[in-house]
Amino acid sequence: xxxxxxxxxxxxxxxxxxxxxxxxxxxxxxxxxxxxxxxxxxxxxxxxxxxxxxxxxxxxxxxxxxxxxxxxxxxxxxxxxxxxxxxxxxxxxxxxxxxxxxxxxxxxxxxxxxxxxxxxxxxxxxxxxxxxxxxxxxxxxxxxxxxxxxxxxxxxxxxxxxxxxxxxxxxxxxxxxxxxxxxxxxxxxxxxxxxxxxxxxxxxxxxxxxxxxxxxxxxxxxxxxxxxxxxxxxxxxxxxxxxxxxxxxxxxxxxxxxxxxxxxxxxxxxxxxxxxxxxxxxxxxxxxxx
Amino acid sequence: xxxxxxxxxxxxxxxxxxxxxxxxxxxxxxxxxxxxxxxxxxxxxxxxxxxxxxxxxxxxxxxxxxxxxxxxxxxxxxxxxxxxxxxxxxxxxxxxxxxxxxxxxxxxxxxxxxxxxxxxxxxxxxxxxxxxxxxxxxxxxxxxxxxxxxxxxxxxxxxxxxxxxxxxxxxxxxxxxxxxxxxxxxxxxxxxxxxxxxxxxxxxxxxxxxxxxxxxxxxxxxxxxxxxxxxxxxxxxxxxxxxxxxxxxxxxxxxxxxxxxxxxxxxxxxxx
Lengths: 290, 272
Fold this sequence. Notes:
The complex is a heterodimer. Chain A is an all-alpha fold. Chain A contains 12 helices and 2 strands. Chain A has a single domain, classed as MetI-like (MetI-like fold, Orthogonal Bundle), CATH 1.10.3720.10. By secondary structure, chain B is mainly α. Helices cover 74% and strands 0% of the residues of chain B. In chain B, helix 2 (21-30) packs across helix 14 (236-256). Chain B is globular.
């Protein structure tokens, strides 16, 4: 090893050390600590802190509220991600042929995505107002109670989430579309390919990798989503919008059961890691057959 | 052909404007007097008013929260860059032991759900006496912004030809000197992208801020907006004004710094 290599090695360690230490202390350590917390009965206001093993998990396995939250999370994730991908793809294809005012178009597109989700919650709360809201007005003066009716609240929540996250999918697809050389399309036209054939045999296959990435990012984010439902509906009415994250938060900081709430957090953690792992397996298999 | 594409352009712009419609409706609401809000449905208010903005500025915690958010988001960006730039450079260029494992941990930790780490972090902040401080929020925000920032910057740094660094070495510069004088100027747009995404994430962050703050001394804008008080009835106009103020920095980033924002968002995802 030359002096230069030794010096580079030392510099390398010194350069990554501060970031690694911060990540270890504020991300990895809490990630492990939460496992330990979930095995405890921990209620700070009563000074209770004792080891209970897997008791919380055993309780959660037959807790109707837990299963309801899991169902809500699943419906929310599948519906939101499906709509986001379809609308995002459509928006990207529309933008692909856009020549004039692209900057304005992208500004209008990204606006909804860039806002704090608490703002989105406040915007939709007002749009859904039973008597003065724009949504009911556009539906011809109905008085639907979007956020108060158990049969409507989840749909209202999903619509708000699709509004704020569709632009992300659209932007990823749009950026990929811009890198497709014009010659590819010209060649297709010379070969006599129609618009539909061009879309299904050129555009969509080229978008596949981006759509897979968007699918992964959006699924993980939907499973972890919290702000929007917490502020917009607070999990109500009658628990119809209570996701796993909202149940975890309420247990942690509203009923102050740090151990029990952490156990729900660990379940979400496991779910997210499972989805990420499954995605990697699918991706590896896809690239192996390609 | 030309006329048809012009029609298409305008139709797409109109559709996107409709998509952004809920935000414009909130802007309209923020300038509409209370008496009109629940009674009429004019597209534009009959007698526009700035009374909601004055109420928010004079009788709410929003001004203080805007200051808190600006400070927390700026400090998060600075700290994350100070930690992330050297780390990204080392990962892109230097022989770091266990580099593959390190990258795996960094990418993996971007998937960590905040709701799972919030309870340990809460106990940690309490033990350190950091509850209700900017420091707690800057630390927590940095921890979730750092992995993405390192990954982004490492990608940008890899694109710089190694030969450009050699001249600086011949001049006797160390690695830190090369990073500061050669790399940073060359990847300035990439640094801007990473900084904007970090600032935006910190500005919008709600869960940690809601949990670690207790008073207006440290409450950020999303927290203040979620807790916006109404005494007898919901002050829709005031809430609308407050949410427009909360949206200003994201709006400036989307409109004014679009190039760098898009570059950061699409980096990696659009490569084959």
